[in-house]
Structure formats: structure tokens, C-alpha cells
Amino acid sequence: MVTAVFPGSFDPITRGHLDMIQRASRFVDHLIIAVMVNTSKQPLFTMAEKVAMISAEVSDLPNVEVQAATGLTVDFMTSVHATVLVRGLRNEQDFGYERDIAWMNKSLNDSIETICLIARPPYAYFSSSLIKEVAKMGADVSKYVPTAVAQKLQQRLGKSDQ
Ligand code: ADP
What's the gap in Å between 155 CA and the centre of ligand 1? Predict the structure, then answer.
């Protein structure tokens, strides 16, 4: 029984993240989406909001669950008996970043393997940050995020502009 963790800040979850989740859910027994704090990013949504938004989008995937997590990813993985860490690779920039994190995680806990899934077009071309940037300027982002998330973004960014 292989339990995998897909960690991220998911601020907010995008259609690109969901593609990764669907793909990973097909080759592991149990997939835990770990909503984590990225200390180098200022979040727009709270942990609870992100867990609720993601849970609504993955409710049709029986082997996928969502959890809020704090601390080191490898420690969270040990606590849930996960051995596979899933990440997405969109471009060369992601590669350098993911390679360093994968090396560090392996060095912290040798029993954990990182598997990177190559993002496919058009998902490879956008990030949560870029979506927030254009949403702030009034763009319709429902092509990039689920409809319910697009509505949340509109509410949140509309309010903060006033
Ligand atoms: P983090 O702050 O940990 O990088 P993100 O939510 O930005 O969290 O990303 C989580 C994971 O999802 C990362 O491995 C990232 O490369 C991947 N990812 C982000 N956006 C996309 C996308 N549009 N398509 C595929 N993978 C993505």
C-alpha cells in the first residue's frame, strides 16, 4: 500500500494542480494533499479556506484526501506513513527548485522518494501567483481555476481593492 503526499501552498488550487492530483491518484493507493505554509509567499487564503476549496474539488476521487500540515514535509509524511512525495514540474526554473528540495528531503529522510510529474500544456504555463495577479486586474480566471475558486478570488480581490 503506497501512500503519497502532494504538498503545496495551493493559494489557490488551480486546474494545473488538479491535473497533477488526478494523475498521481492513478498510480498510488492513497494520496494526501498537504496544504502547507510556504514562508517565502504571503497567502491570500487561510489554511481552512484552502482545505475547504480543495476538498470540494477532489470529492469525486475516492483515494484522495486533504489535510492542513505544518512543519517539515518529511515529518508530516512520517506521521501519515507516506513514502512518496509528488511534485509538479512546469519548466527549467521549477526543475532547479524541485531538485534542491528533493535532495534536501532525501537527506533528511532517506526512505522518502520524490516523484515529479511533468506538467502538460496549457497547465504548464500558469501559477497561482500569476492567476492572482491578473484576477486583481479584473480578468476572468475560470479557465485556470475551478469555477468556485474563481468566484472566491473575485470576492477576495474585489474586497481588498476597495
Ligand atoms: P509551493 O509553494 O510549495 O511551490 P504551489 O501550490 O505553488 O506550492 O505548488 C505545488 C506543486 O504544484 C509544485 O510542485 C508546483 O510545481 C506544482 N504546480 C503549481 N502550479 C502548477 C500547474 N499549473 N501545473 C502543474 N503543476 C503545478
Answer: 23
